[in-house]
Amino acid sequence: MEAYGILVKKYMKKAYNSALFFTRDPNDAWDISQEGFLNAWKAIKRFNTKKAFFPWLYTIIKNESMKKFRREKKESKINHFYIPKVMLFLHSIIGT
């Protein structure tokens, strides 16, 4: 656990900047970088110790960023599709 804390301290800024590159949002970048470290911790047994840590972490952060993008895109499509219909329905009920 202590060794992992050292990795977090060493790579947090790079992880955050990588997430910021993908998201362009500081809050999302912070969330994604933390999620990336958490996912890396969960998958640490699959990490090849003969390779560098950061490229592996970068891939995890990139994947987390893409998941967030797909989620937001899906939510955006759903909202844009349903909101006008809901508004028309509500207007028909209240008679405006």
Overview of the structural elements:
This protein is an all-alpha fold and 96 residues long. The protein has a single domain (2-70), classed as RNA polymerase sigma factor, region 2, helix turn helix motif (Rna Polymerase Sigma Factor, Chain: A, Orthogonal Bundle), CATH 1.10.1740.10. 84% of the residues lie in helices and 0% in strands. The longest helix has 42 residues, at 53-94. The radius of gyration is 20 Å and the shape is elongated. It starts with a helix and ends with a helix. The model has no long low-confidence stretch (mean pLDDT 86).
CATH class bucket: Mainly Alpha
Taken together, the total number of domains comes to 1
Number of helices: 3
Helix content: over 70%
Q: What kind of sheet is the major sheet?
A: none
- Give the CATH H-level superfamily: RNA polymerase sigma factor, region 2, helix turn helix motif
Strand tally, please?
0
CATH topology: Rna Polymerase Sigma Factor, Chain: A
User: What portion of residues belong to β-strands?
Assistant: under 5%
Kindly report the average pLDDT value: 86
CATH architecture classification name = Orthogonal Bundle
Distance between the termini: 62 Å
Return Rg in Å: 20 Å
Oligomer state equals single chain
Structural class, by secondary structure, is mainly alpha
Element pattern in H and E: HHH
Sequence stretches where pLDDT stays below 50 over 5 or more residues: none
Can you tell me the overall shape? elongated
